[in-house]
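Re: [ENG-882] Designed sequences occasionally contain unexpected residues at chain ends

Forwarding the minimal case from QA. Structure tokens:
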């Protein structure tokens, strides 16, 4: 019987290299987003504060029974400045390109920003010269114009694509997507295809890019890392990509759904935001007393 060599490795004090080189560790995310009530403007005039407070009070009353939507385009500058500072910017931003046909107001682009109050949005319609024609304040899961824009240019037909020699999983993926688009029904649970778990060749990726052309709606959700959601030219088909705090792609999916859940404010979010807005209104009343 041959001897079985057992490797001997020293352990204990003095057995390891001793130098001053820092440990090469993966950096941790230090700042986890949490809600913080916005500060009231220090130098705002009392009349401007009261005007902003009264508008928010009407808005909150509307949240009790529905999804209010108020156009701030005609609101005077002082009150609007107070609203801008107190509502702030939240985690979700939406851009809609080629928006002229959506509302008939000549807007070249629609820019939507969630405020620090989840489910409370600012929807700005911007013309080709950068002027704002509408500035809506609204409460909802996601502004309806984003859903309409994604559907307006979408088709249920996949384009005909010649498969390159290196395409391995693309034919099966396109068949699955085609079937799910055909069978889609509103309020149905999302069908998620996780591309991260599949062995895709460069040709597979190129086929998917040609078949699933980006649409006009782009959504960025900034929470623990970033989530980028893009509509496509296929009806109810979205590209959803998750990046960690170092902007490394960690999850790449295709979702067949009306709107991906990550982009929506839940009913609980809206209820919580209403309570916080009531608290904000009380603070504004005390500041102008």
């Amino acid at each position: 019987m041959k001897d079985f060599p057992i490797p001997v490795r020293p352990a204990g004090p003095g057995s390891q290299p001793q130098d001053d080189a820092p440990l090469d560790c993966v950096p941790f995310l230090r700042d986890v987003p949490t809600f913080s009530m916005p500060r009231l403007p220090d130098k705002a005039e009392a009349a401007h504060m009261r005007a902003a407070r009264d508008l928010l009070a009407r808005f909150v009353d509307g949240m009790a029974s529905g999804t209010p939507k108020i156009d701030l385009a005609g609101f005077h500058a002082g009150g609007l400045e107070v609203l801008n500072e107190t509502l702030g910017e939240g985690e979700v931003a939406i851009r809609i390109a080629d928006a002229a046909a959506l509302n008939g107001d000549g807007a070249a682009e629609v820019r939507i920003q969630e405020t620090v109050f989840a489910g409370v949005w600012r929807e700005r319609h911007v013309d080709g010269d950068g002027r704002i024609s509408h500035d809506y304040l609204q409460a909802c899961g996601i502004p309806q114009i984003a859903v309409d824009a994604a559907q307006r240019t979408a088709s249920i037909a996949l384009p005909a694509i010649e498969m390159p020699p290196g395409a391995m999983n693309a034919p099966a993926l396109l068949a699955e997507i085609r079937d799910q688009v055909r069978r889609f029904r509103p309020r149905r649970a999302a069908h998620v295809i996780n591309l991260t778990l599949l062995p895709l060749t460069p040709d597979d990726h190129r086929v998917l890019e040609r078949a699933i052309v980006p649409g006009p709606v782009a959504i960025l959700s900034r929470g623990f890392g970033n989530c980028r959601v893009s509509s496509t030219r296929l009806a109810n088909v979205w590209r959803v990509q998750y990046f960690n705090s170092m902007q490394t792609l960690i999850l790449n999916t295709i979702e067949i759904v009306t709107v991906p859940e990550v982009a929506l404010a839940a009913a609980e979010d809206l209820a919580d935001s209403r309570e916080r807005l009531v608290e904000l209104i009380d603070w504004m009343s005390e500041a102008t007393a």
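QA comment: On inspection the terminal residues look reasonable. The chain has a mean pLDDT of 87. Proposing we downgrade this to a documentation issue.
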